[in-house]
Amino acid sequence: MLAQMLFMQPPVPALPTSLNFHGKTVLVTGANSGLGRAACLHYLQRNVSTLIITVRRASEGEAVKAELLAHPDVKNEPKILVFELDLSSHSSVIAFASKLRAEIDCLHIALLNAGVFLLDWKVSPHTQNEMTFQVNYLSNAILSLLLLPLLRATAEANSLLAPSYLSIVASQKYNESRFIANPIPESTTIFDAFNDEKGFQPWSLYADSKLLVRLFVKELAKHVDPSSVIINCMCPGMVKTNLARNLSFPLRLAGRLVLSVRARSPEVGSRVLVNAAGGAGKESHGEMLVVYQALPVIPWIESKEGERMQTSLWRETVEEAEKNASGAIVAASLL
Predict the structure, then answer these.
(1) Domain assignment of residue 211, yes or no
(2) Structural domain tally of the chain?
């Protein structure tokens, strides 16, 4: 019993019964399984009017849509729209954002959930960037910038009575990044450091990408008024999902054993996502939420090295976004 208590995660309270998304348009990326699908169900159970889900292949999305609509707790006949989105590709991210703006006139909540967990060196064939860096950080960051104008316009159309939300799935594991103990030299760009195969450390890769997410959210929040758009991130904790599906069989087996003892169900873990992306207040702006509470940043982030990395990351990200989607930074009112 003692061992079980030591390994268990804190309980996640039920979402407030007052949480209601009637009249709202919500975007959830990576909605085909795990946390994304469970978050979609939470929104549907709370009367969301329009739910936008993204998947890499439209056929997968239509299957998920049918399953969600057939769920006995979904009774308000919502509109569910399926969009293709491949986060390994800049062109896919830009095409998705353009299509969304063309077809959707408002967006109240953007929950960027999609991500990968890899232990092998893999490069995106589209961008030539290391895949975990590309998917978990860079594409989500660029997508955030591209969605900002629509999120801001939605809040302004409502006379700023209720802010929109831009929420990204992060992880407390960011504090295990190799770049905390061994900061990137000033002579090396952050992007180059992540794309250096010689410096590849598989067990730090996921934490490294989530460190960038945490720094990006912290910096982006400085440039956006929370009365318009609340920017935050969240850690759902250890959850029973197929995030590690690309690992070798022995590692997957070991992972399943750990998950069976310690992990939350997707339904429970996704409560943390939905609370951040629709329930949290302006006090969550720029923060990481864990079980509905803001988790203080580790001291390193506020150190000279941490602040330098945050500034460099912002500059490189803005430059990359502008290079691939000219005019995006001006449109997002970040200049």
Answers:
(1) yes
(2) 1
Which amino acid, 322? E
Active-site residues, by number, are 206, 210
Question: Is 11 part of any domain?
Answer: no
What's the CATH code of the domain at 256? 3.40.50.720
The answer to whether position 10 is within a domain reads no
- 113-167 pLDDT, tens digit per residue, is 999 999 999 999 999 999 999 999 999 999 999 999 999 999 999 888 899 999 9
3-state helix, strand, coil in the chain (%, to 5): 50, 15, 35
What contacts 167, CB < 8 A, 6 or more positions away? 109, 110, 111, 112, 230, 231, 232, 233, 234, 273, 276, 277
Q: How far apart (Å, rounded) are the C-alpha atoms in residues 33 and 115?
A: 12
Helix (H, G, I), strand (E, B) or coil at 95: helix
Q: What is the pLDDT of residues 159-201, one digit of tens each?
A: 888 999 999 999 999 999 999 999 999 999 999 999 999 999 9
Cα–Cα distances (Å) from 170 to 25, 76, 83, 223, 233, in that order, read 22, 31, 23, 20, 6
- Could you report the per-residue pLDDT of 283-327, keeping only the tens digit for each? 999 999 999 999 999 999 999 999 999 999 999 999 999 999 999
Single out the residue of 145, 123, 144 nearest to residue 132, CA to CA. 123
Which residues form the domain of 284?
19-331
Identify the sign of the CA torsion 34, 259, 257, 260.
Answer: negative
Tokens encoding 144? 């955030």
* Residue 314 burial by Cβ neighbours in a 10 Å radius (0-12, 13-18, 19+): buried
DSSP 8-state assignment for residue 19: -
Q: Is residue 291 part of a domain?
A: yes
* DSSP-derived 3-state class of residue 322: helix
Could you please report the per-residue DSSP string of 198-251?
GG--GGGHHHHHHHHHHHHHHHHHHTS-TTTEEEEEE---SB-SSTTTTS-HHH
- DSSP annotation of 148 reads H
